[in-house]
Structures are given as C-alpha cells and as structure tokens.
TrEMBL record:
It comes from Candidatus Paraluminiphilus aquimaris. The keyword Transcription regulation applies. Residues 1-62 form the HTH asnC-type domain. CDD domains: HTH_ARSR (cd00090). This is Lrp/AsnC family transcriptional regulator. It comes from the Bacteria. The keyword Ribosomal protein does not apply. It holds the Pfam family HTH_24. PROSITE patterns: HTH_ASNC_2. Keywords: DNA-binding, Transcription, Transcription regulation.
Length: 149
C-alpha cells in the first residue's frame, strides 16, 4: 500500500459517497487508475464494508453501556454459547475478548436503562457468567470509524 492508496482510504473513511471524479481530483490523478486502486483495495479486503452510519440518538438509542464480563468458564462450548448469545442481540454493537482481569467488553446501545436490564436478564438467562459490571456512558467525547492511516 502506497501513499496514494492511503490518501484514497482517508477520503473514503471521511465520506464513502464521494464520486470517483471527486476522489480523482483530490488525489490529483485520473479516474481509471483511482478506480483500479479502489477495486483492488476492495478485492484484497482492505476495504471490507461500505455502510451508512446512523445517529443512535436519531433512532432512540441514546443510552450506551459498556459491559464488563468475567467468566469462570473458558471451554469452547461456553465460548460458542456466549458468542451465539451476543450475535443474537442487536443491542451489542461491539464485543471484545480481553487480556487481563476482565474477559469480555461489550458496547451495548439501548433506549433506556430499563431496556438495558431486559438485555442483561436475557443474556444471563442464555449463558452462565461469573460477574457482569455495567458502566453507563454519560457523554461520548470522541467517536470515529476512521483508522489513523
């Protein structure tokens, strides 16, 4: 990946709706080479998705919890059940397996604390966990999907 590829990626991370003409003008190249580079970036998996980012507040999901999960189970059966439980819940917008004292970190978007409790009750009914700590985000200070290329 060279500086032109990185420049294309920076532009697309800011606005994936830019036309090929706009990208070519901003990069200082003709359309065909830019198109070929974008196609190659898609085919190689560098560009994995193109989506619309929806405002959580605009759709009534302005409550965000970070959920810390500890488990005493570490076998593959439990992990598979846990992963299935996460995938079945649209409220989970991010999930990470961690090193350290906490086993998993979940980012959960819901409409209210009551909706979070319903999520929590469903999760612990489906999979055994040792300890769950929920942290309510009071204010989002920074959010981006752009990687620092």
């Amino acid at each position: 990946m060279d500086s032109t590829d990185k420049a294309i990626l920076k532009l697309l991370q800011e606005d994936a709706t830019l036309s090929l003409d706009d990208i070519a003008i901003r990069i200082g190249a003709s359309k065909t080479p830019i198109w070929n580079r974008i196609k190659r970036l898609r085919e190689s998996g560098v560009i994995s998705h193109q989506v619309a980012i929806v405002s959580p507040q605009a759709v009534g999901l302005d409550t965000c919890f970070f959920v810390l999960v500890k488990t005493s189970e570490h076998d593959s059966t439990w992990q598979s059940q846990f992963l299935d439980a996460l995938r079945a819940r649209n409220e989970v917008v991010e999930a990470h397996r961690l090193a350290g004292e906490i086993d998993y970190l979940l980012k959960v978007r819901v409409s209210s604390p009551r909706a979070y409790d319903q999520f929590y009750q469903g999760l612990i009914a489906d999979v055994k966990v040792f300890n769950v700590t929920a942290l309510l985000s009071m204010e989002e200070l920074k959010y981006t999907t752009a990687l620092p290329i």
